[in-house]
Design a protein that fits this description.
Number of strands: 12
CATH topology of the largest domain: ABC transporter transmembrane region fold
Bound molecules: adenosine-5'-triphosphate
Shape: elongated
Oligomer: single chain
Strand content: 5-15%
Largest sheet: 6 strands, mixed
Length: 600
């Protein structure tokens, strides 16, 4: 059966993914990571060399045994004893080499996974969003796993390389003509390998790409399950997942077909090699140039090499897969992290301001336009406006969740001005804390969840924070108190409780500035009042920006801005705005059910 050679162009291409490292960069990162564990690397190397030497010694001793068959019992016993020692040492060193290499590989993989995840978390939020969390997740999980799985093989490849090298000298020690016969396999292997490598590298890269795309579509479907259900988009979404999976399977099958063709060529080369060696041996023995023992040793040596040679050639396949996976992992490290210039802690009083802030998610349509704001230290500002006016976007920009496409956000304390974009990411949350619409409960104990951003707080401080946000009541009824496990599949929490935890988390972190985006929206009307009080506890005494859908929240703030189609159309205090009888007054009137008199 002839199998058509596959073409990379036939495979799906995903253009939105993160960069992939070049081979040179990948090797440098791998080497640098390995050098962090010098002891393990030296042990792996040393044991591998010893085990390779053992593999070559046994056939040579068996050849001697054949030649000295009539040399007397003592000589034979000595040879047999040497053979036994060689076999034993080979087994021990091979096991030690394997273990040392696996340990080294596990350490390298753990370092890579950690470095990649750290990098992914520090990267520009815009880049992360564009690339898709699925692609990053697939690199930190699938690709690192692929690399980890190939670690034992990597050790085997190294052993095989050393064994083939040492074996060649073994052949030379017998007779150079036998070594020559042995070398006929190399050109055949080299040609088929060249053919294979040219085709397989791009195919494996494409295979990894389509697997990343499948993860992206799957994760997207899971995250957007609510929307999919609400709009009855199951058939469409299922078709998207099926298509991404089909592309992934196609890519895997294409690589597999190529590999089968390559394996067939390899078996042929070994048959030719052994036949040539035996034929050359026959003539050399007939001409008395070599002994029968030499040819026996050469044939056994060649036979012993089937396995390392096969490992070398067959594993090119896996080495390439691992290489493609590693290049994707290292690619994450190549994404520039926004330069962090300021790592100082904030002063006690911080003013938040912005100038000329504009934002276009797609780079074309501005959803926030030319916003200038100043929130003096210790005061609060409410943002109100109709749905889609740009409140969440502005809050995200002010809170440093992502950079604006235009303008700057500045924090000012006694020491001077700091642009939010210039702050060290590790320091940013000391300056500004944010509660967004997407609150999340991390799987673990309630204590771990609340102290996520402030790990060293005492139970007393935690309970104080929970009391301040009005959560002490329900937390007191939990089966294991602060040790109760929450998060996915654990003790269920209501939307209002999740919001309270988010507020308590921020209270414990104690930033100078807080940005609250709809902290009360999820609670429903019954819990909303409680959450308003909880949010007020957080706002008190701090510089605060509050996205207020419930206008009672806006009324309680020192200043209010009204947004419409991305721009600020009104600003002032609650009383000012009511006297103006503009948009805010209209919103308030609709909200409170009756027109309110200024100052009332
Ligand atoms: N991640 C995003 N990508 C592209 N467009 C977005 C994104 N987030 C919001 N938008 C768009 O930007 C505009 C402003 O949205 P934003 O959520 O900031 O408004 P909002 O006033 O907070 O609305 P709501 O009160 O409904 O939350 C809307 O047209 C919205 O569709």
């Amino acid at each position: 059966m002839t199998v058509p050679a596959p073409r990379v162009a036939d495979l799906p291409e995903n253009k939105d993914i993160l960069p992939v490292a070049a081979p040179g960069q990948t090797w440098r990162v791998l080497l640098r990571t390995a050098l962090r564990h010098r002891g393990e690397a030296a042990a792996a190397l040393g044991f591998t060399v010893l085990s390779s030497a053992g593999v070559v010694t046994s056939p040579l001793l068996l050849g001697l045994l054949v030649d000295r068959a009539g040399a007397g019992t003592a000589a034979l016993v000595r040879l047999l004893a040497a053979l036994g020692v060689a076999v034993l040492c080979t087994a021990v060193f091979t096991a030690l080499a394997q273990r040392a290499a696996e340990r080294l590989g596990a350490r390298i993989a753990a370092d890579l996974r950690e470095d990649t995840l750290t990098q992914a978390l520090r990267m520009d939020a815009g880049v992360l969003e564009k690339a898709g969390a699925g692609d990053v997740a697939s690199r930190v999980t699938d690709d690192v796993e692929q690399f980890v799985e190939s670690v034992p093989l990597g050790a085997a490849v190294f052993t095989a390389l050393v064994t083939v090298g040492v074996a060649f000298f073994g052949f030379l020690s017998l007779d150079w003509r036998l070594a020559l016969a042995f070398t006929v396999v190399f050109p055949i292997h080299a040609l088929s390998l060249r053919w294979y490598l040219a085709k397989s590298g791009p195919l494996y890269a494409a295979e990894r790409r389509s697997s990343a795309e499948r993860s992206r579509v799957l994760l997207g479907s899971l995250h957007g399950a609510g929307t999919v259900r609400a709009y009855r988009m199951h058939p469409l979404q299922t078709a998207r997942v099926a298509q991404a999976s089909a592309h992934s399977v196609d890519a895997a099958l294409t690589s597999l077909r190529l590999f089968f063709r390559f394996s067939m060529g390899m078996n042929g080369a070994e048959a030719v090699g052994l036949s040539t060696l035996l034929t050359a041996g026959f003539f050399l023995v007939r001409a008395d140039a070599v002994s029968v023992g030499d040819v026996t040793a050469a044939a056994l040596l060649f036979h012993r090499l089937f396995s390392p040679l096969g490992t070398l050639l067959l594993s090119f396949d896996d080495v390439q897969r691992a290489g493609a996976a590693l290049a994707r992992v290292v690619g994450v490290a190549m994404i520039p992290i926004p330069a962090a210039k300021v790592a100082r802690a904030p002063g006690a009083a911080v003013t938040l301001s912005c100038a000329g802030v504009g934002h276009a998610y797609d780079g074309r349509t501005s959803v926030v336009r030319a916003v200038d704001l100043r929130v003096p230290a210790g005061t609060s500002l409410a943002i109100v406006g109709a749905s889609g006016a740009g409140k969440t976007t502005l809050a995200g920009i002010l809170g440093g969740a992502f950079p604006a496409t235009e303008g700057t956000v500045t924090l000012t304390d006694a020491e001077g001005d700091v642009a939010v974009s210039d702050l060290d990411p590790d320091r940013l949350r000391d300056w500004i804390g944010i509660v967004s619409q997407e609150t999340h409960v991390f799987t673990g104990t309630l204590r771990e969840d609340v102290t996520f951003a402030a790990p060293d707080r005492s139970d007393e401080a935690i309970l104080q924070a929970l009391t301040a946000v009005g959560a002490a009541g329900w937390v007191g009824t939990l089966p294991d108190g602060l040790d109760t496990r929450v998060g996915e599949g654990e003790h269920p929490l209501t939307a209002a409780q999740v919001q309270q935890l988010a507020l308590a988390r921020l209270l414990l972190r104690d930033p100078a500035v807080v940005v609250l985006d709809e902290a009360t929206a999820e609670a429903g009307s019954s819990g909303a009042r409680d959450l308003e009080r909880a949010a007020a506890a957080l706002v008190r005494g701090r510089t605060a920006v509050v996205v207020a859908h419930r206008l009672t929240q806006a009324r309680d703030c020192d200043a209010i801005v009204v947004m419409d189609r991305g721009a600020i159309v009104e600003s002032g205090t609650h009383a000012d705005l009511l006297t103006r009888e503009g948009r805010y007054a209209a919103l308030w009137s609709a909200w409170s059910g009756a027109p309110e008199v200024a100052g009332g």
